[in-house]
Design brief:
By secondary structure, the chain is an all-alpha fold. The protein has helices at residues 2-20, 29-71, 100-103, 122-125. The protein has a domain at 27-88. The chain is flat.
Length: 128
């Protein structure tokens, strides 16, 4: 019985290994944008957590120093630390900007009526 189980196990493992190594299709632009927004939100959430931790540590330190002062104990002065910075509300990034070529910013909407310098060509100057 054990002689049969080993080859069957090897076959099953090789099939699942082949399936797990199959190449996945590339992500769509929407999926990439969603992943980028999720990553940005995760970074913002970490900043909010750090801000809340900073505020709570300041509160505990202030209470400790106040209690020590009331009881008359001698303690070292508090260590200067940078102030807590509030990350503000989460702002999702807008859609990616179009490349300059696709935005049409490099070309005027209609063909030019006069040369860029504003002077008429020599052929037209004599007609006036």
């Amino acid at each position: 019985m054990q002689r049969i189980a080993v080859p069957l196990t090897l076959i099953a493992v090789s099939i699942f290994t082949g399936v797990s190594l199959a190449k996945l299709p590339p992500l769509s632009d929407e999926a990439k944008a969603k992943a980028a927004e999720t990553a940005a939100k995760s970074v913002w959430t970490d900043k909010v957590a750090a801000y809340q931790l900073c505020k709570s540590m300041d509160k505990v330190a202030a209470e400790y120093h106040a209690d020590a002062k009331k009881s008359g104990r001698q303690i070292k002065p508090p260590v200067a630390t940078p102030p807590c910075t509030d990350p503000g509300p989460f702002v999702a990034a807008g859609p990616p900007a179009k490349p300059l070529e696709a935005s049409g910013a490099h070309s005027p909407p209609q063909p030019a009526a006069t040369p860029p310098g504003g002077k008429a060509p020599q052929a037209e100057q004599g007609k006036k």
